[in-house]
Specification:
245 residues, alpha/beta, 13% strand
Length: 245
């Protein structure tokens, strides 16, 4: 059995920030020494108890002190940042970790985060879907990109000069991209089926009832089965590629 570690992390409000950051890093360094397979770290911007504001920055701080453990974002809240910024930062972290990275994503569940970024009354699920689609296109397509969306546009057409290296976003080390995991909270979540159809895995929130978590894995099996059936029945449809480690 392989052991994994997940932390938001959570601390009593008012604790010294330097101390809690050091404790959170020490916990993952210890997990690496003990042979844990993975460690996932969450992020919130507007929470005095959950004080990791960027899981990617936090994981980057561990890149050269960990040896074996795979580190994952748990999760990057996609509506809160431009897809080009996320694509570039994830690619850098993947290189820093020499491929020991899992890209965990979600629409974000903290309402005060949504409000501070101006997204409280917006369709965050639609923003999430558009963001990950644009991120994958950035990693897949050559610049100058031509990605028009409802919420974001991505192009460097007016300024690209590849002769001097400008106008292109570097891809991640893992190709075609790091393994992707989607956070799921509600029972019988549709996000589970969508993830399975795309060859992604899932992260069940740690505060859910066991019966709810069971529905996630039931739907994931059903989603993968449905994807396989569609692939076998159509000569022009490829089965979603699942990353194994």
């Amino acid at each position: 059995m392989k052991l994994s570690y997940f932390t938001m992390p959570l601390h009593p409000p008012g604790r010294d920030y330097l101390e809690t950051l050091a404790e959170d890093r020490a916990a993952i360094l210890l997990a690496d020494e003990l042979g844990f397979a993975e460690a996932f770290v969450g992020e919130h911007v507007t929470d005095r108890a959950e004080t990791i504001t960027s899981c990617l920055i936090f994981l980057a701080s561990l890149a050269y002190q960990t040896r074996r453990i795979t580190l994952g974002s748990g999760t990057v809240n996609l509506p809160n940042a431009h897809p080009a910024a996320v694509a570039a930062q994830v690619a850098m972290v993947d290189h820093m970790l020499n491929g020991r990275f899992v890209f965990g994503i979600s629409p974000g569940g903290l309402r005060s985060d949504a409000e501070v970024f101006g997204n409280l009354d917006r369709d965050r699920k639609a923003m999430f879907n558009e963001s990950i689609d644009q991120i994958l296109r950035i990693w897949r397509e050559p610049p100058p990109y031509d990605i028009e969306g409802r919420f974001w546009q991505v192009t460097t057409r007016r300024t690209m000069d590849l002769e001097i290296g400008q106008g292109a976003i570097l891809p991640p080390l893992q190709r075609p991209h790091p393994p992707i995991m989607v956070a799921c909270m509600s029972p019988m979540s549709d996000s589970v089926s969508q993830a399975a159809r795309r060859g992604w895995s899932i992260i069940s929130a740690n505060f859910l009832q066991p019966a709810w978590v069971a529905t996630h894995w039931q739907k994931r099996r059903g989603g993968r089965t449905g994807a396989s059936r569609r692939a076998s029945s159509s000569p022009t449809t490829k089965r979603p590629r699942a990353t194994t480690r």
